[in-house]
Structures are given as C-alpha cells and as structure tokens.
C-alpha cells in the first residue's frame, strides 16, 4: 500500500509539473495566455521575475515571428491589438531582425497603464518540425513520463485487485468469499462422507454380532 501511495503521488506531481511549467516566471521566458487554444493568446514576457505585456505600438511581423519561434513554432500567422485593458504593466520591444528569439531583443518598461493595447498573437499551428524543437521535445518527454507513471499505477492496481494480493476491493472480497464458501462446502462434504462411513461400519458390526 505504501508503494501504491508513492507511485500515485509521483504521477500526480509529474502531471502537475508538466501542466504548470509555463506558469513559472523565469527571466526571458515568453508565453501566450487567455487564447482559444495552445498556439494563440495574449503575449507576455517575464522580466525581472514578473509577467508583463507587450505594447501593440511598434509591434510587427518580426516580433510575432520571434515570439512564436521562442515558443517552438515555425512562424506566426497573425497578430492584433487588444485595447481597453486593465491597469497592467507594459513593456516595449525593439528588434534588429537578426535575432532567433524574442528574448534577444531590447526591452523598455513603460509602466502601468489601462489605455494601451496589448498584443494578441496567433502562431502557426504545430507541424512535424515543431516536435523536434528542444522545448517541445522536453514537454512531450515530461508528458510521456507522467502517462507511463499513471499507466504503471493502473496496471499495478489491476494486478493487485484481480490477483487478490493484499487489497480489499470488491472483486477481491467477492472472490475470497467464494473461495471460503467452496472450502467450507468441501469440508462439510468430507465430514458427511466420514460420518456415513462410520455409520455404515457400525451397522455392519451390529449385523455381524447378531449373526454370531
């Protein structure tokens, strides 16, 4: 039972780590949030340990491409502005065009504002090449590891339950009860047979005595 709990906790931790890895704010990391799917959303960048939004002013195809490249996509499909935001922190960005990721560009903090527009980016949907990207490969590896742990837990539970090793699940109880009833019935049958043999022996002895 202790092994089962350890495997269960390990599987849950692996799933939670894989699912919330992108929430950790590490300087230079970018992400898309509040999107319709995994390759669209409002662009954010982690700077000095906090998530900030990109200003739409000055944003273009180059910035979109670099952002999508950093996230593991081959290129960007489109981008648009998101006006009327809450009082959020913005950052402006300047790229030379020869960068390979948006974290290599120059950033300038613009402070808190509710009147500036953020950037909503749509990256090109994942294709075969994307999975060879290191970031995506690492995420896929973590997901596979979590799935293998969960599958191992399920297989272990099935083997224990149906094998009636040490658990008290319903199949175990039912099978154990049936086995006890069979043993009890077999024992009662043997007792009746022995009793019949004993009685027959007594009757035969009485007949022999009467004949003599």
UniProtKB/TrEMBL annotation:
Bilayer-spanning residue ranges: 146-170
Where is composition skewed (Polar residues) in this entry?
202-212
Give the Basic and acidic residues compositional bias ranges: 181-198
Domain of life per record? Eukaryota
Which UniProt keywords are given for this protein, alphabetically ordered? Disulfide bond, Membrane, Signal, Transmembrane, Transmembrane helix
Q: Which residues form the SRCR domain?
A: 30-124
Where is region (Disordered) located?
A: 181-212
Question: Which pairs of positions does the record mark as disulfide bonds?
Answer: 95-105
Gene Ontology CC: membrane
Tell me the organism. Holothuria leucospilota (Black long sea cucumber)
InterPro entries found in the cross-reference section: SRCR (IPR001190), SRCR-like_dom_sf (IPR036772)
Q: Where in the sequence is the signal peptide annotated?
A: 1-19
Identify this protein by name: SRCR domain-containing protein
């Amino acid at each position: 039972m202790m092994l089962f709990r350890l495997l269960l906790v390990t599987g849950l931790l692996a799933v939670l780590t894989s699912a919330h890895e992108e929430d950790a704010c590490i300087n230079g990391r970018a992400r898309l949030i509040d999107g319709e799917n995994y390759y669209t959303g409002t662009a954010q960048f982690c700077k000095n340990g906090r998530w900030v939004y990109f200003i739409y002013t000055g944003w273009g195809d180059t910035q979109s491409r670099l952002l999508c490249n950093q996230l593991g996509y081959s290129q960007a499909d489109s981008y648009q502005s998101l006006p009327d935001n809450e009082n959020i922190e913005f950052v402006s960005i300047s790229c030379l065009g020869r960068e390979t990721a948006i974290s290599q560009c120059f950033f300038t903090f613009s402070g808190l504002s509710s009147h500036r527009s953020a950037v909503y980016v749509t990256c090109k949907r994942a294709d075969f090449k994307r999975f060879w990207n290191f970031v995506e490969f690492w995420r896929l590896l973590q997901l596979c590891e979590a799935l293998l742990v969960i599958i191992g837990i399920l297989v272990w539970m099935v083997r224990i339950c149906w094998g009636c090793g040490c658990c008290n699940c319903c199949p175990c109880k039912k099978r154990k009860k049936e086995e006890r009833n069979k043993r009890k019935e077999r024992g009662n049958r043997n007792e009746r047979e022995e009793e019949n043999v004993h009685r027959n022996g007594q009757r035969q002895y009485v007949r022999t005595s009467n004949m003599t």
